[in-house]
Each structure stands twice: as structure tokens, then as C-alpha cells.
Specification:
Helices cover 59% and strands 3% of the residues. By secondary structure, the chain is mostly helical. A two-stranded parallel ribbon has the order 1-4. Strands 2-3 form a two-stranded parallel ribbon. It is globular.
Length: 306
């Protein structure tokens, strides 16, 4: 949207700050002792990690830098910190925008006629408990070792996974594998050259992984079954909202995915002000998936992500 340009200089400043903070926390964890110090570092790392992910999310939408190659290059590096492949995560996220709240991606409802309640419940609580992060990282590793997995029928364990795999554009596969290799080498190099204690390093990433996974669906739980309106604008303490780059203006983002994070609040105040508490929405999620008879077709089924 021409009225909302990419704030490139601000984004570069934010990016530099986050990389310094991420590096400092890892360096500090190298010499950290005692459970309280490690817990504090892990909590800070979880916050910085989620901030980095949201900045990478801007790159997924081409909103981080004006030059597309530089934008994607920055995205590749930020995704490697996750760790994962940018072009895989980008396809998954853009596919999410296409499938949002359809039967192909309604994790919070189950259909009695399909007898899928046990599986939906297991997967849903997996999101809340952090398994989703572990599965995402593991899938990157599997794709690097065995790229044919995306063509296997048995890999399509449920409707959501099948829809994801069917939307992946195979022309990115070689690039994705190179990005995964880069991520592996980056983390191996960090552990080796910085002499990071493996347990401390894993604790930091476990904290980030749980925090990232647990809130992945909070903006969509019990939202309208509509591809554009199927998200909530959630209230949270304003400084945290700014630290998370207005990510809680999530319905606005789904309505206007080409608007930079900097302007989401401005657009949201005009279109759909925040109404629900983030913390109440998160607590309500623990009710788990609910029964539904309303089917919503994925209008983009079969379309590859470009």
C-alpha cells in the first residue's frame, strides 16, 4: 500500500540491535551459573528470539527491506537463527494466509463425523506445550536429509500437513536444503567457537521454542471462520506490544499483509480496535478444540506458493 512505505532505516536499526542482543545473551549464557541466572537469561532469550522471528516475518512478506534480494538475504540469516530455512518457513507462512480458518487449518475445531478429536487434541496441546517448535525444527532437518519426504503420502499425517505439503513449491527445494545446511553450520560453529555449554545452549533455545510455539495460535483461537477476518486483535501492555512490533494487531495483518508492522496499530485503530485481552485469550485456549459442524473450503487448495 503506497500510503504505508517500508521503514527501511528503522528496520535496519532494529535488526542490528536484535542481533547484538542475541549474541550478547548467548555469550552471557556461556559463563552463567545457578538456576536463577540461567532462568533469567532464558526468559530474555525467549523474548529476543520472538522479536527476531517477527522481524523475519516481515521479510517473509517482503516488508523488511526495499530491495528484494537484500530482504530475502536478511530473511535467510534470521531464519537460520530459528533454526530453519527461510524459503520453507516463508512458504509455510504465506500458505497459512491462504488457508487461514478453513478446514485445512482450523486447529481449534474438530468434526464429529471425521472422528478426529483425539488427533486434533494431541496436536493442539502440542502447540501450547512447545512440541510445534520441535516438530518445525525436526522437519527442516528431515527435509535436508531426505527431500523426497514432501512427496510421500505417509508424510501427510493429517489434513493440515497434507495441505501444507501440497502447497510447497518444489523449485525452492535445492535452495531450502542449502539454507538448512547454512543453519546447521551456523549453530555448530557457534557452539564450537564460542565454547557454549551444550546444556545452557539447549535451555536457551527450549525457552524460546516454548514461548514461540505456545502463542502461535492464540490470535486465531475461536476466531471467525474467514480467511481475512479469522484473527483477533489482542490487547496487551503497550510496551510489550511495541517490543513485539504490533504483532498482536493480527486481524489487521491478515486483512493487510502488505502493511509494515509500523503502521498496523494506525490501521487497526481505524478499522478494528483491540478488544480481547491477550492473557485471557491464552488461558481460554486451554479448553482445547471444540466441536463444529461448519465446514469452510480452502479456496486456494492445490495452488503452489510462488
Amino acid at each position: 500500500m503506497k500510503h504505508y512505505p517500508i521503514p527501511q532505516r528503522l528496520n535496519l536499526g532494529v535488526l542490528l540491535f536484535l542481533l547484538i542482543a542475541w549474541d550478547a545473551l548467548l555469550a552471557w549464557c556461556r559463563t552463567a551459573h545457578g538456576p536463577w541466572q540461567l532462568a533469567g537469561l532464558a526468559a530474555a532469550f525467549a523474548l529476543v528470539g520472538n522479536m527476531i522471528y517477527i522481524v523475519m516475518h516481515e521479510a517473509e512478506h517482503g516488508l523488511l527491506l526495499k530491495n528484494r534480494r537484500l530482504n530475502d538475504g536478511a530473511g535467510v540469516f534470521l531464519a537460520a537463527l530459528f533454526p530453519g530455512a527461510f524459503h520453507l518457513m516463508r512458504q509455510g507462512h504465506l500458505g497459512h494466509h491462504q488457508r487461514n480458518r478453513s478446514d485445512d487449518e482450523a486447529f481449534d475445531v474438530y468434526f464429529p463425523e471425521d472422528n478426529d478429536r483425539p488427533w486434533k487434541t494431541l496436536m493442539f496441546y502440542g502447540i501450547l506445550l512447545g512440541w510445534f517448535y520441535a516438530i518445525t525444527v525436526f522437519f527442516n532437518l528431515i527435509l535436508f536429509l531426505c527431500p523426497q519426504v514432501i512427496r510421500w503420502r505417509k508424510a501427510k499425517v493429517d489434513r493440515a500437513t497434507a495441505a501444507l505439503l501440497e502447497s510447497l513449491n518444489h523449485r525452492y527445494l535445492r535452495l531450502i536444503r542449502l539454507e538448512i545446511l547454512f543453519a546447521i553450520l551456523l549453530h555448530a560453529g557457534l557452539i564450537f567457537f564460542l565454547k557454549l555449554p551444550a546444556l545452557n545452549y539447549l535451555l536457551m533455545y527450549a525457552a524460546f521454542g516454548w514461548a514461540w510455539s505456545a502463542v502461535q495460535y492464540v490470535h486465531h483461537y475461536e476466531a471467525e471462520r474467514d480467511v481475512l477476518n479469522g484473527a483477533h486483535n489482542l490487547k496487551i501492555w503497550r510496551p510489550i506490544d511495541w517490543l513485539l512490533f504490533n504483532h498482536n494487531w493480527h486481524q489487521v495483518h491478515h486483512r493487510h499483509p502488505t502493511v509494515s508492522w509500523l503502521f498496523l496499530e494506525k490501521v487497526g485503530q481505524r478499522e478494528a480496535p483491540q478488544q480481547q485481552s491477550f492473557f485471557k485469550a491464552f488461558v481460554r485456549m486451554w479448553r482445547g478444540p471444540q466441536p463444529s459442524q461448519d465446514h469452510v473450503e480452502n479456496r486456494h487448495a492445490g495452488h503452489l506458493i510462488r
